[in-house]
Amino acid sequence: MDQSRTEFGAAKPGAESSDEQLMTAFSRGSNDAFTELFARYKQPIFGFYWRRVADRAQAEELAQEAFVAVIRAAPRYEQSAQFRTYLYAIALKILRAYRRKAAFRATFLGLASEHAEPAAESGLVTQVFMREAIRKLEDMDREILLLREFEQLNYAEIAELLNLPVNTVRSRLFRARTALRELLSERSPSRNR
């Protein structure tokens, strides 16, 4: 028997297993497989939320919630897509629920729907400026841009995740990049000091 294989037929964690092999092994009881998946994706998923909610503690909480959802769904996991697409679909669903709750609180309880941006110190001026420009994009264009540029999903993965045709993803990404370029050229952080 091949020593790099487990009794489940998937490669052992750490033996350069694919994400899909690891998730299959985890769904069959391998905690080591989940540990490896978590190590691979904890920073990308945190970054996914950090770029969208602008509050570090909230981003960490949402990332943890995404991994808890993976754990809960593991017994029902069937490989129908790349694991990365599966994970980002879960993350996006959690983000949407968070935004709905935040909107509800803002509307009915009079609370702010998003935390204020951190104070713009010299090193953060550009980051804050970029966040503001990205927030001005249309919702779908912004999401496609973030998924492509920051999560580095390919066009097919974005199309599957957002349930859009690939050509729509391409055209909206082009439109988002063009709009962002225009927003950034209108004013730069150095002009606003």
Tell me about this structure.
- It is a single chain.
- By secondary structure, this protein is an all-alpha fold.
- It has helices spanning 19-27, 31-53, 56-73, 83-109, 125-135, 139-149, 155-162, 166-186.
- It folds into 2 domains: 10-113, RNA polymerase sigma factor, region 2, helix turn helix motif (Rna Polymerase Sigma Factor, Chain: A); 117-188, Winged helix-like DNA-binding domain superfamily/Winged helix DNA-binding domain (Arc Repressor Mutant, subunit A, Orthogonal Bundle).
- It contains 8 helices and no strands.
- The radius of gyration is 19 Å and the shape is globular.
Q: What's the short version?
A:
With 193 residues, the chain is mainly α. The protein is built from eight helices and no strands.
Please describe the structure with a list of short key phrases separated by commas or semicolons:
about 190 residues, disordered N terminus, Arc Repressor Mutant, subunit A, single chain, 2 domains, Rna Polymerase Sigma Factor, Chain: A, mainly alpha, 8 helices, about 65% helix
